[in-house]
Amino acid sequence: MSADFDLLIHAGRIVCPASRLDTTGAIAIRGDRIAAVVADATVTARRVLHFPDDVLLPGLIDLHAHPCRAGSQFGVDPDSQLLARGTTTALSQGDAGAANVDAFVRDTIESSQMHVVLAINLSSLGEQGPGGCFELPHSIDVAACVAAVERNRPQVWGIAVNASHHACGRTDPREVLRQGLAAAEQTGLPILYGMRRTEDWPLDEQLRCLRPGDVVTYCFRSRPHCLMNGGHVRPEFREARERGILFDIGHGRSSFHFETAAAAIQDEFLPDTVSTDVQRGHIGYQPIHDLPLVMSKLSAAGMSERDIFAAVTTRPANVLRRSEQFGTLKTGSLADLTLLNWTDSTEPLADTDGNTRSGGRWHIAATIRAGQLIEPLELASVTAGS
């Protein structure tokens, strides 16, 4: 007698923010697709997995990371450093530009088990390093960027524009953003934007340049710019959100501050998406810097579980314009799943300035990518350093 499904995954809790599902039962998978959410214990499958103490979510989506196998000073291996840690889809923040995007598509996107999408760097050099990507003004070539997008449009989500002093050096950040907007307008794509410090360029002027659908990353840092002032969110950030500008965490090595995050959450300014900005500089630290860890820090800062779950599934899927296949448990969608286990640990959680808060931790229990269980891998340790 043949089995009903290829894989059946029982979990203590099944949560899908897209459909407001929060139940017990099992996810049935046929091939690489979700076939059903089932409560009937009599259904059969060729393989059955049980996670009675864990929560099952759509595969986690990291909207700001550095999955790149070669050619980026920040790049980490997508499968061992992201997929094995519960992230089934990630957006590369500017790892490749017009000069190396074709190699990136071949060596990273097409060669990885996890799903990688690119925010192409406005700099034709991408993040080859060792300096900032916009330090050489001639590397900014709008025509080349547009042509690179058209060659690889299915793999490119948007344009990465980092106006920080680290990225720009002596190059005028206003000119960087102006040309980034030109490339975005010509391709019809959004921008993933890193802001400039306030003393160089007022924040309200930067935000007014952005358009609905553009994403501001590093939103919960305390310096060299901060969205808080006197315990409240600056009005220019609220006005930007009202116009349709989106805000992302981009934790990284210097862009998450507990006091900023807690104050913004208390002031009802939640991030649209929660992301790691995981990069090569994180390798070798403990605890491992992954999306479940960053989710745990948002919990310690006061963000609700419901909003955290949405910010790593439904919302980034919508931002990436891939909500039909990713970030959902609906029947027929791609069988990308993440199983997490919560522990009420007293181990302190640290922000990027070394400030700590107590709180529990999400840990990865299992990852399913396109209907396949990702077996445990030998992982390099990755964490958020100071």
What does this structure look like?
This protein has 386 residues and is of the alpha/beta class. The chain has two domains: 5-58 and 331-373, Urease, subunit C, domain 1 (Roll), CATH 2.30.40; 60-319, Metal-dependent hydrolases (TIM Barrel), CATH 3.20.20. It contains eleven helices and 18 strands. It has helices spanning 78-81, 101-109, 142-151, 165-168, 173-187, 203-209, 235-242, 258-266, 291-300, 305-311, 314-319; strands spanning 5-16, 21-30, 33-38, 45-58, 60-65, 87-93, 115-121, 156-162, 191-194, 215-216, 228-229, 232-233, 246-247, 337-343, 349-350, 356-357, 361-369, 372-373. The strands form four sheets. It has a seven-stranded mixed beta sheet, covered by helices on one side. Helix 3 packs parallel to helix 5 (173-187). The longest helix has 15 residues, at 173-187. It starts with a strand and ends in a 13-residue tail after the last strand.
Mean pLDDT, rounded to whole units? 94
Low-confidence stretches: 377-386
Q: What is the gyration radius calculated from CA atoms?
A: 20 Å
**Using DSSP, what is the number of strands?**
18
CATH class of the largest domain: Alpha Beta
Widest sheet: strand ordering: 3-2-1-4-14-17-18
User: Which structural class best describes the helix and strand composition?
Assistant: alpha/beta
Tally of helical runs: 11
**Biggest β-sheet strands, sense, barrel:** 7 strands, mixed
Order of helices and strands: EEEEEHEHEHEHHEHEEEHEHHHHEEEEE
Provide the domain count: 2
